[in-house]
């Protein structure tokens, strides 16, 4: 059942009060955060030529080892789609919110880099970055590559892969450690545009709760990850975050 407008307003007011007293806010964002920028999901991008492929033929280490040229072509196609997107007002509001609280950490499951473009200063990329390239053999970042043809590592000669987390791969240790530390240290955990029900992302909410943090969610559909005393705002990132920032500061550049 959709939240009544009055319930949404009450939830926004509760979240506003929680933000005013928070010392460290940890924000987890998912696909819903970037949807209003027009960023297509993995499956949405599987149209035309790519519609005939199973995701496991395009986004696993095994698929890359078997046919690196095809996987590279797919990710070049996705890069061109995502490069057209710009940060939305929700991204900008979240960046402005970072200046209104003592500390704000963004843990994002998105690979589009829009939080950084919007100006968020502390971003942990849980699933990597679509526009980063890494050596398939050694994992090292390879700079200055923008090629429609499969490139190779200048150090070892291995094929170069996109710097995202594929199906069957673990979250990078550094990202997982930083995200877990932020969730454990925060006093307010806010999930935006994500179900946050799949581990290890779901473990961040557990870590925050274990440390006594308040938990809130902004998502058009309730994720089912919340408890009765949590704050649930059934709305989009833009619709919820812009008035929330304005509530704290008065009208800002996110209008």
Topology:
Blueprint: H1 5-21, E1 24-29, H2 31-35, H3 61-66, H4 68-82, H5 89-97, E2 103-108, H6 114-118, E3 123-125, E4 128-135, E5 160-164, H7 173-185, E6 188-192, H8 201-210, E7 214-218, E8 231-233, H9 237-249
Parallel strand pairs: 1-2, 1-6, 2-3, 6-7, 7-8
Antiparallel strand pairs: 4-5
Helix pairs in contact: 1-9, 5-9, 7-8
Report on the structure:
The protein has a six-stranded parallel β-sheet with strand order 3-2-1-6-7-8, with helices on both faces. Helix content is 36%, strand content 16%. It contains nine helices and eight strands. The two termini are 29 Å apart. The chain has 255 residues and is of the alpha/beta class. The model has no long low-confidence stretch (mean pLDDT 92). The chain has helices at residues 5-21, 31-35, 61-66, 68-82, 89-97, 114-118, 173-185, 201-210, 237-249; strands at 24-29, 103-108, 123-125, 128-135, 160-164, 188-192, 214-218, 231-233. Helix 7 (173-185) packs parallel to helix 8 (201-210). Strand 6 (188-192), helix 8 (201-210) and strand 7 form a beta-alpha-beta unit. The longest helix has 17 residues, at 5-21.
Features:
six-stranded parallel β-sheet; 16% strand; alpha/beta; 255 residues; 9 helices; single chain; two-stranded antiparallel ribbon
């Amino acid at each position: 059942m959709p939240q009544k407008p009055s319930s949404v307003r009450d939830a926004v007011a509760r979240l506003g009060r929680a933000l005013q007293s928070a010392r460290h806010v940890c924000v987890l964002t998912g696909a819903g955060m970037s949807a209003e920028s027009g960023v297509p999901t993995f499956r949405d991008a599987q149209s035309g030529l790519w519609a005939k492929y199973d995701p496991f033929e395009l986004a696993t280490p095994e698929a890359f080892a078997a046919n690196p040229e095809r996987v590279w072509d797919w990710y070049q196609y996705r890069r061109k789609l995502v490069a057209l997107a710009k940060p939305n007002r929700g991204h900008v509001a979240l960046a402005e919110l970072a200046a209104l609280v003592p500390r704000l950490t963004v843990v994002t499951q998105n690979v589009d880099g829009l939080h950084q473009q919007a100006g968020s200063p502390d971003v942990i990329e849980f699933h990597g970055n679509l526009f980063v390239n890494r050596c398939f053999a050694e994992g090292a970042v390879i700079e200055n590559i923008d090629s429609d043809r499969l490139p190779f590592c200048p150090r070892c000669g291995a094929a170069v892969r996109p710097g995202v987390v594929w199906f069957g791969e673990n979250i990078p240790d550094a990202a997982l450690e930083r995200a877990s530390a932020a969730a454990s240290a925060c006093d307010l955990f806010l999930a935006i545009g994500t179900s946050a029900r799949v581990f290890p992302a779901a473990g961040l909410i557990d870590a925050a709760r274990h440390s006594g943090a308040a938990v809130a969610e902004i998502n058009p559909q309730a994720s089912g990850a919340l408890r009765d005393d949590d704050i649930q705002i059934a709305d989009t990132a833009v619709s919820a975050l812009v008035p929330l920032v304005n509530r704290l500061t008065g009208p800002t550049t996110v209008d």
